[in-house]
Amino acid sequence: MKGNNVVAPVLLAALIGAGACHGRRAEPGAARRAAALAEAVQPSFLARALRQVGGAHFHGVSRFAVGRSGAPPLSVTTTTDVWVDRAGNYRFREENDRDGGREVVLYGRELSVALRYGKMIRRVAEEPEPSRLLAEALGGPAAALDLVTSQARIAPAGTESVGGANASAFSLALADGAPQVGASGPAFSGLRAWRGAATIKTLTGRMVIDDASGALIKADLTATFTAKADADPAEEGSLDVHTVLSDIASTPPVLPPAAEELVLRQRTLPEMHELLRGIAEPRSAAEPHRRAAAPSHEARP
What we know:
The chain has 301 residues and is of the alpha+beta class. It has one domain. It is 20% helix and 35% strand. It contains seven helices and twelve strands. A twelve-stranded mixed sheet has the order 7-8-9-10-11-1-2-3-4-5-6-12, covered by helices on one side. β3 and β4 form a beta hairpin. The longest helix has 13 residues. The protein is globular and about 55 Å long.
């Protein structure tokens, strides 16, 4: 990967994906806190927790930026709203400042999807697609924590009462001393390999987790970092993620949207003799028929 026009988009795209969050902590009890927080932000765990609490409204704004020093960074800001009802149906809408976005509705055994400015198309919901789409919508906090966790100090920050339920708060800050890049942290490969060599420069954050269900009630995380891919100059990046749950156990039921049925058009394949004409046919069929030979003028017996 050579040049800013290649490296920066790769880092930016890799940041948006959610990942596993496991890190090493030196102080007593920190490993347990990190594990609890890492589990709470995982999209699949959060999706189950939202159903367990009787549904909720997840609102998130995530901004990721990366670029060379002295050059305007490439950035994308995505706003996501997810509604999960008591029956487990969901609807989410996400839009970004690059004029992209989508709306997805799961209602019973039907999945409806529309890209921004496009038609809503309905089809049968078949796993793992519905779960994967929901995980993508809830993935902002996991993507952020994934990058910083190996160089973060996680500490308890008191308790709160959220809707009459107890919740535990955690603070995040840059760990003291030299950052332990890649030490006992997540294993990264492919387009995400640069994360293992990223150095977190600044970090502040606070996350709140429901004690009963483990649902991530609120997340605020801001960080800056430097990253290097192959032999290219280092890139400078930043992330800013904010999410909050509301309408816990009181989200209105998700309703089926107005959508068109997915029409599966039959694909017509050429017949074999049309596809292979002149190749696999006998020579007599492939070549033009020759004119019948003229009658012989030899004397007959």
